[in-house]
């Protein structure tokens, strides 16, 4: 119904934003991954899904089509509502979640708040083949790239919050990631960046 909303970010919170477009403020529920992607912006364009229930009309927003598509796939599963879908997308980046489903990593999916063993199995059972067909390019290297990018983004966010210049922090993180490889954690990146400054 509403495919996307583009406008000024009047309010930015980790769980929701208010986007002002043509004098109207749209309250939009978002995942933490979307928040990370837009929190430093003044204006943005969010892909949206309007969820209609008897007692509420709720807009959900996503910083890209991949996240929106995954959200729609998740809420198509019995027992997974839009609130749970947003929690799942806040817990794992879209690339890692897809890989976990395709590889049948039920324990990883079950570790997400609100997802029990049966629901994790149902997610894998109902989405594995569909995601494999759509995303034949999900290889181990793509998954590692996704993990590395997520760690780098989180570390960058933390360093900027600590008062670092964004460009210097990016350079520092890039050289640390190059030197230490894919398995380095966010905490290790931050510690090394603090030491090198």
- DSSP strand count: 5
CATH top level of the largest domain is Mainly Alpha
Low-confidence stretches: none
Mean pLDDT: 85
* Morphology: flat
The secondary-structure class comes to alpha+beta
Number of continuous helical runs: 9
CA radius of gyration is 18 Å
Q: Can you list the strand order of the major beta sheet?
A: 1-2-3-5-4
Helix content: 40-55%
CATH architecture assignment name of the largest domain: Orthogonal Bundle
Instruction: Spell out the helices and strands N to C.
Output: EEEHEEHHHHHHHH
How far the N terminus sits from the C terminus, by CA atoms, comes to 49 Å
What's the CATH topology name of the largest domain? DNA polymerase, domain 1
CATH superfamily of the largest domain: 5' to 3' exonuclease, C-terminal subdomain
Main pleated-sheet profile: 5 strands, mixed, barrel
**Range of strand content:** 15-25%
Number of domains: 3
Describe the fold and architecture.
The chain has 3 domains: 59 residues, Nucleic acid-binding proteins (OB fold (Dihydrolipoamide Acetyltransferase, E2P), Beta Barrel); 70 residues, 5' to 3' exonuclease, C-terminal subdomain (DNA polymerase, domain 1, Orthogonal Bundle), CATH 1.10.150.20; 57 residues, Helicase, Ruva Protein, domain 3, CATH 1.10.8. The chain contains 9 helices and 5 strands, in the order βββαββαααααααα. Strands 1-2-3-5-4 form a 5-stranded mixed beta barrel. The model has no long low-confidence stretch (mean pLDDT 85).
Gist of the model:
With 197 residues, the chain is an alpha+beta fold. It is built from nine helices and five strands.
């Amino acid at each position: 119904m509403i495919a996307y909303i583009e406008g000024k970010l009047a309010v930015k919170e980790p769980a929701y934003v208010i986007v002002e477009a043509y004098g109207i403020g749209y309250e939009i529920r978002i995942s933490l991954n979307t928040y990370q992607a837009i929190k430093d912006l003044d204006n943005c364009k969010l892909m949206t899904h309007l969820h209609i229930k008897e007692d509420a009309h709720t807009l959900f927003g996503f910083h890209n089509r991949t996240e929106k598509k995954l959200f729609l796939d998740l809420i198509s599963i019995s027992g997974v509502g839009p609130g749970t879908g947003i929690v799942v997308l806040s817990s794992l980046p879209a690339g890692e979640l897809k890989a976990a489903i395709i590889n049948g990593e039920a324990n990883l999916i079950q570790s997400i708040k609100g997802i029990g063993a049966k629901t994790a199995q149902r997610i894998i059972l109902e989405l594995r083949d569909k995601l494999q067909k759509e995303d034949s390019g999900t290889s181990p290297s793509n998954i590692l790239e996704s993990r590395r990018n997520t760690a780098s983004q989180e570390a960058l966010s933390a360093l900027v919050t600590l008062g670092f210049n964004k460009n210097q922090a990016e350079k520092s993180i890039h050289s640390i990631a190059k030197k230490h490889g894919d398995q380095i954690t966010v905490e290790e990146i931050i510690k090394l960046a603090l030491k090198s400054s």
